Amino acid sequence: MENNFLNYLENEISEKNISHAFLIETNNMKQLQFDISRLLYKNNIIDNPNADNSLSLKIVYADNNLIDKNKILDIQKFIMTKSINHLYKVYFINNAELMNLSSFNKLLKILEEPSENVIGFLLTNNINSIIPTIKSRCKHFKLYYDEEEPTNLHLDLINKITNIKNVNFIELLNIKNDLLSIEKNELIELLNKYKKQLLLITQSDDMFIELANIYKIVDNSIDLLKSNVNPELVLDKLFIELRK
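Structure (tokenized):
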């Protein structure tokens, strides 16, 4: 088991030695799916982090608490065609524990004879619910997210940042002053919670690319703060980019 899965995956990408299948236990599949897709997109592994607009990404969800064999057959068809201008075909199976025996058997054929440049991510809330023949053909990981609720102060500031495009100059200055009134470490924590809050309020996959761009902007601000860049300069840069 590896706890720091995203770093592990990034290392595999940099070494150009990516495993063909991962089985990951997590408490937040939506967040993990987004984080993985964003990482793959950043490294030009997939053409688009939004599966609806991608030729190299497929995401499987359960219907009525079941992933039947037809869902796995769809994956087979998907990986049989080569991705245009990109190296990999990537598929996610969310709630992999909801596959029935027929689904597991169909997936087993995919895993036993892995296609070149295909990566599968099986996400589950209980890794022990996956049958041993599937588990033995995947790398196992656990990644749990901090589910601590933001404080009322943080929620208020998060909401203000979320609506940053709609405020006037005076309101913008007030928001910046509010953010500068907290400690740097708390500001970094708040920006991380802002990213999580964005994911919760995003209802449409059409916003996926825009969300990925915002994540990149906020991550850059966090990196600057950690590098001891003046927080006021960091916030000025952040606001300019978020208001574009």
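The chain has two domains: 5-143, 152-242. The first strand starts at residue 21 and ends at 26.
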